[in-house]
């Protein structure tokens, strides 16, 4: 089990968790949200192919981790930006899904990702948080950090729009 | 060899190629651009993991195709949005790279992707085109289509910013 | 009346209209769409403040023009990027609104704009086109050109998501 | 002087300042950055036309406020989204400019804005913060809040890329 010293060095000294503190207060509409999310995550076969794991769920929040392997790399040997986008898309999507009713599924409408530093490290972490949960649309933010030698660096940030598909259960 | 009847049904009847015709006229600064791009693509190990192939290169343009396999799917069995983003990111990045000098490498600054239709089909095609090639920054557009039963549907569109890293050869 | 020679010089020689030809074939659900759009545009008081005019409407398309005046400038004397975004947002929004039912209003969910060239000229033109019209969400693309000495240069491009507010007439 | 009770109600109870705390620690490269920014802001004539004011500057941060007037409205009488984008673009741009050297100017490369709530209120506030300051590119985040009856609601959030134009002083 990899233990992380979370110490972000994005030009300034602060931790990711301080920087954007937990948005507490979201009330899930389905008390079984965690089972529903985990079951859906397990059906995303791409997560198994790349080796991603769902490590934390809270109402309005989701964290996914992805250990490095060379098969995930772009031409310079770092995590490919699209793979950072892949786990970030799922992290934001499932953060939104925690707040959706039982009979709904979640759809990504769009996202925009800025790559802030090379994805150079042994572990990639994507943390999705809901910013605004409307009846139909949900806006989420995802920060992705890469951990190298026990230090985490913010390597990407996403702003994402998701849609609640009412009356269409995920399964 | 899969032969495609390109017939997009994005609410209206037009083909992707008509819709955004080839932007001819870009002059590559390095006549060996194709070798340089293909060699870089081959080093993107994620492309081999997912099974993506570089199928066409022109100055300012790049097309990547990815046959479906269940390991690429999201929870409903379609191509995961992040995987669409992965080959689209490479298609736009290599479209830009065709126009860069020999001693430069390419970096994705950011992209924004709208998902327009489910990634439901047997083949995914990402076509990147340079919109504007500045000295440092390049802006590209990528359309991704999914082919099902011989018909292609536009499933995503990206707007992407790339950076020329002068003096840092890709290799 | 300003007559335009549309001849875009975005590194290559092609006209904006060739480059992304008219997407014909959208069927408006409300035959009075043009009146509805014009009436809504006239209520956007910001358009009068800056001097913008709605010059063309088709199903799924809208063009807005804005003559230059120094009061619209950023620090170097060109059109401010936010003002380019303002008329582009309305051009994409009203392109979408042409396709909406009579009892609906339109809401911008988000947009992403790349600035491709300085907004240096005597006339700004924003052309919005619908890419995909879903029941609830509409995706539009907007190109903005700036005309100087009779030549138009593509200065910005947007990718935009809009929402149909069913049952809430615009007025 | 308008005094604000900052109490954001974005579904949850927290203040904007708690939510994304000040990123302290940026070191300006030009000790006269504040004069340089204010002088540039004063040359943005669009700010005078709409009535926007630069109210706070710190290294890596900038806040702009815009009192409501009907001339700024969209069709429903609220702040037009493009106007929210206009002051947000300047807030992020000047947040970046505080960190640039004396002989540089700042250029917006692109931004993406999500509109989270109607711009319904008597004051609009845009707070730009630098996320990452590279040598050439700077990534900033801007939150825009609208104040109604003394309560502030987060109405938009932007993710923005800016460019340092070295050797080209702003003036």
The side-by-side strand order for the widest beta sheet of chain A comes to 1-2-4-5-6-3
- Main beta sheet strand tally, sense and closure of chain A: 6 strands, antiparallel
Query: Tally the helices of chain A: what do you get?
Result: 4
Count of individual beta strands of chain A: 6
In the CATH hierarchy, the third-tier topology of chain A is known as Thiol Ester Dehydrase, Chain A
In total, the number of domains of chain A comes to 1
Helix content of chain A: 10-25%
Overall geometry of chain A comes to: elongated
Descriptive overview:
Four copies of one chain form a homotetramer. Chain A is of the alpha+beta class and 171 residues long. Chain A has one domain (33-166): Hotdog Thioesterase (Thiol Ester Dehydrase, Chain A), CATH 3.10.129.10. Helix content of chain A is 22%, strand content 36%. In chain A, strands 1-2-4-5-6-3 form a six-stranded antiparallel sheet. In chain A, a hairpin with a 3-residue loop joins strand 4 and strand 5 (137-148). The longest helix of chain A has 17 residues, at 81-97. The relative contact order of chain A is 0.22. The A-B interface holds A 40-41, 43-46, 48-50, 70-76, 80-83, 85-90, 105, 107-115, 170 and B 40-41, 43-46, 48-50, 70-76, 80-83, 85-90, 105, 107-115, 170. Strand 3 (105-115) of chain C pairs antiparallel with strand 3 (105-115) of chain D.
């Amino acid at each position: 089990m990899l233990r992380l010293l979370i110490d972000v060095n994005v030009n300034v000294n602060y931790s990711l968790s301080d920087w954007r503190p937990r948005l507490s207060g979201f009330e899930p509409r389905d008390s079984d949200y965690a089972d529903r999310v985990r079951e859906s995550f397990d059906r995303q076969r791409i997560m198994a192919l790349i080796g991603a794991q769902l490590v934390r769920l809270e109402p309005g929040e989701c964290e996914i981790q992805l250990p490095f392997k060379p098969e995930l790399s772009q031409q310079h040997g770092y995590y490919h930006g699209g793979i950072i986008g892949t786990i970030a898309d799922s992290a934001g999507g499932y953060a939104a899904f925690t707040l959706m009713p039982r009979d709904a599924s979640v759809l990504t409408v769009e996202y925009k990702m800025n790559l802030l530093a090379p994805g150079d490290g042994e572990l990639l972490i994507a943390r999705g948080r809901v910013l605004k949960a409307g009846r139909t649309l949900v806006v989420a933010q995802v920060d992705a950090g890469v951990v190298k030698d026990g230090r985490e660096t913010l390597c990407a940030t996403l702003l994402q729009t998701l849609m609640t598909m009412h009356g269409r259960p995920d399964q």
